[in-house]
Design a protein that fits this description.
The structure holds two protein chains of two kinds. By secondary structure, chain A is α/β, with parallel strands linked by helices. Chain A has eight helices and eight strands; from the N terminus they run E-H-E-H-E-H-E-H-E-E-H-H-E-H-E-H. Chain B has a three-stranded mixed β-sheet, with helices on one face. A three-stranded antiparallel β-sheet of chain B has the order 5-4-6, with no helix packed on it. In chain B, strand 4 and strand 5 form a beta hairpin. Chain B is elongated, with a radius of gyration of 22 Å. Classes of the chains: A alpha/beta, B alpha+beta. The structure holds guanosine-5'-triphosphate, magnesium ion and zinc ion. Guanosine-5'-triphosphate binds next to helix 2 of chain A.
């Protein structure tokens, strides 16, 4: 017999992601899913964000890592809520893992939740986890063709942060090319050039976040 | 205005361990989800064995059919879908122009309408990841 299914394969994951999103919305927690290849600067950006916005809003962090808890340890001194998710052998966070982490957080005491996904430009893009926005970090040491090589990541993201701009003159990274490539894949993508070393562009990043944290009705439609 | 309050000390970091079975690759999770859907549908229809499954994957999903097949064979080996043939159709990227409604193939990520040259377009194909149907006995 032939059995018709016509079902989304990631339906179960997406349903849990919606549930996570509802829990976060209920408590007015603006949530971003921060993704990049390994070493692009996700944890450094979180540290910077805590330095800059930590007194203005209550930030929580979920750190996704395959094995270690080093990134969470880096955030220990900030006195914020941090959950380390060790994914074991999985190269991405999924909605179920994040759901468990949400159970460990006091959501009433958060305005912003940053979820650092596992360093990887392929797999994390496939799995919704309950975020308001996906944010992708691309560093100038990685090459300006990455958006074309990993289109789903750039397609699914609302914001691209081009990081390590302090190093750009030492690389063959072409900013115009990178922007064009990213916009080819996602014409709606917002792009900010930043450096976590000399703080270039971080004010714009602050604004991007604060606009969304302080205006609770400004929820995206994705 | 959202609440703006100073940070409080929330004590030490708490660790949550979550071990997934399996290997490193998004195809692994996808294979597991696929198996879950197929086995639950199959038992609803009192099927004994699944022989062939049709999957449609949009090109933008970056699914490598050989990987998905490999992981599916691995996760399904003790199930009624063991040995089932996976028929994976890759759907090319198509977009629709918002101003003029033209639907066109997107090649090399060129999201520009070939008719009116507008760039206000929406992807209408290329992001799907569906189980279409399967044959069982
Ligand atoms: N020059 C320069 N170095 C940076 C910048 N941002 C981060 N780095 C450095 O890049 C390295 C990796 O940064 P991380 O923040 O650990 O990167 P990550 O994305 O969290 O890495 P994983 O968690 O392993 O995926 C560190 O040595 C940072 O100091 C930047 O803007 N400029
Ligand atoms: Mg990190
Ligand atoms: Zn047109």
């Amino acid at each position: 017999m032939k059995i018709k299914v016509m079902d989304d394969i990631l339906r179960a994951n997406d349903a849990i992601a919606r549930d996570n999103r509802n829990r976060l919305d209920e408590h007015g927690v603006f949530t971003i899913n921060l993704m990049s290849s390994p070493g692009a600067g996700k944890t450094t950006l979180i540290e910077k964000t805590l330095d800059r916005l930590g007194m203005r809003c209550r930030v929580g962090v979920i750190e996704g890592d395959i094995e270690t808890s080093r990134d969470a340890e880096r955030l220990e001194g900030y006195g914020i809520q941090v959950i380390q998710l060790q994914t074991g052998s999985s190269c991405h966070l999924d909605a179920n893992m994040v759901s468990q982490a949400l159970g460990e957080l006091d959501l009433k005491k958060l305005d912003l939740l940053i979820i650092e996904n596992v360093g990887n430009l392929v797999c994390p893009a496939e799995f919704k986890i309950g975020e308001d926005h996906k944010v992708v970090v691309l560093s100038v040491t990685e090459g300006d063709e990455k958006p074309l090589k990993y289109p789903l990541m750039f397609r699914e993201s609302s914001l691209l942060l081009i990081n390590k701009m302090d190093l750009v003159e030492h690389t063959n990274f072409n900013i115009q090319e990178a922007r064009q490539n990213a916009l080819k894949v996602n014409p709606q993508l917002e792009i900010i050039e930043i450096s976590c070393t000399d703080d270039q562009g971080l004010e714009e990043w602050d604004r991007w976040l604060l606009n969304r944290i302080t205006v609770p009705s400004d929820t995206p439609t994705t | 205005m959202g609440p703006l309050a100073p940070q409080s000390d929330n004590g030490p970091i708490r660790y949550t361990h979550y071990l997934t079975k399996g290997l490193i690759m998004h195809e692994m999770s996808i294979a597991q989800s696929l198996l879950d859907i197929v086995t639950s549908e199959a038992s609803r229809h009192n099927a004994k064995k699944v022989v062939r499954i049709r999957v449609r994957a949009g090109e933008l999903r970056g699914i490598v059919p050989a990987h998905l097949n490999h992981f599916f064979q691995f996760v399904s080996k003790d199930s009624i879908a063991a040995g089932a043939e996976l028929d994976i159709e890759i759907l090319p990227v198509k977009a629709r122009c918002n101003p003029c409604d033209t639907i066109f193939d997107v090649e090399d990520f060129n999201y520009q309408c070939p008719q009116c040259k507008d760039k206000d377009v929406e992807t209408v194909q290329g992001l799907e990841l569906m189980v279409q149907d399967f044959e069982a006995c």
